[in-house]
Specification:
This protein is of the alpha/beta class. The chain folds into two domains: about 210 residues, 3-Layer(aba) Sandwich (Rossmann fold); about 70 residues, Helicase, Ruva Protein, domain 3, CATH 1.10.8. Helix content is about 35%, strand content about 15%. The strands form two sheets. Strands 4-3-2-5-6-9-7 form a seven-stranded mixed sheet, sandwiched between helices. Strands 1-8 form a two-stranded antiparallel sheet. Helix 9 runs antiparallel to helix 10. It is globular, with a radius of gyration of 20 Å.
Length: about 290
């Protein structure tokens, strides 16, 4: 367990002095329950050889708990004022490095190089990259898609997101909630909704219920998805495939192949089906066949 921290009320004056007001557009909802901070840190499964990436540090409450179990923690915070407060609060933790950045400000909405330049040197032989975060609601989907395309690929992702997004991540093919993000995430990870988190444990309180979601790297991960370039190609393919989800693959497959720069002489799939009817593994199979064509 980390050192005890001050209550949220003690930070209010500091934040007010800095002119800080939580931004709904940035998804700034602080998780205040210390028990949940410890649950998230423990569930991340970090050890002394591992690096944990946290997107949306806020006031550093979760960061403290992660620092107590991980070899290294790299935190990303977009807001200058929160970055300044968190930097002071976490100064006693030598294994924590904070980066002030927009986590999606890299080319094409990717994680910026300055973050990866901090993460990669901290990875030790035998160590893993893990992700644990109370993700900003406004960008949770794009962030998760980006995490799936990182090099190195995170071994486990443990995040707080809106429950509706969590349900989409875990959705089964053939259901309304199933889409490109579920396909991409499930092609790489076993997705589990661990628990609901009520609005009362946040300040300000969101208008929705949240969920703690675990993405654990699949033991049977396709070798075709071993590189970041391949995973980005798959992400482009499935995103385009689901853009017109009510149309059959007779229409959407050629568009998706074109978007990913692929060609498939023999589709090997019933073109009368919609993409939502096919499992993530089946869609990866289509993409892989096109990649080898």
């Amino acid at each position: 367990m980390s050192e005890s921290r001050d209550a949220f009320s003690s930070f209010r004056e500091t934040l007010e002095t800095l002119g800080f007001r939580p931004s709904s557009s940035l998804g700034q909802n602080f998780l205040l329950d210390p028990t949940l901070h410890r649950v998230i840190a423990a569930s991340a499964g970090a050890g002394p050889e591992d690096v944990v990436l946290e997107v949306g540090v806020g006031l550093g409450f979760l960061t403290r708990e992660l620092a107590a179990v991980a070899g290294s923690v790299v935190g990303v915070e977009i807001d200058r004022r929160l970055y300044e407060v968190a930097s002071r609060e976490l100064a006693a933790f030598p294994n924590v490095t904070l980066v002030r950045a927009d986590a999606l400000s890299g080319p094409g909405g990717s994680l910026p190089a300055e973050v990866l330049d901090v993460v990669r040197p901290r990875l030790r032989p035998g160590g893993r990259l893990l992700v644990a975060a109370n993700l900003p609601y406004s960008v949770s989907g794009p962030l998760l898609a980006e995490l799936c395309c990182l090099d190195p690929l995170p071994a486990r992702i443990l995040v707080l997101v809106q429950k509706e997004l969590g349900q989409r991540l875990a959705a089964t093919h053939g259901t309304e909630a199933y889409g490109s993000l579920a396909t991409l995430c499930q092609a790489l990870y076993r997705v589990r909704l661990l628990r609901d988190v009520p609005p009362q444990v946040f300040r300000p309180r969101p208008k929705v219920v949240s969920a703690l979601v675990e993405l654990a790297l699949r033991e049977d991960l396709s070798p075709r998805l071993s590189t970041a370039a391949a995973r980005r190609s798959l992400a482009t393919f499935v995103r385009a495939l689901f853009q017109q989800r009510r149309k059959t693959m007779r229409t959407t497959l050629p568009m998706a192949l074109g978007a990913a720069g692929l060609h498939l002489p023999e589709p090997g799939v019933d073109l009368g089906l919609r993409a939502e009817a096919l499992s993530p593994d089946a869609l990866v199979g289509v993409w892989a066949a096109a990649s080898m064509a």
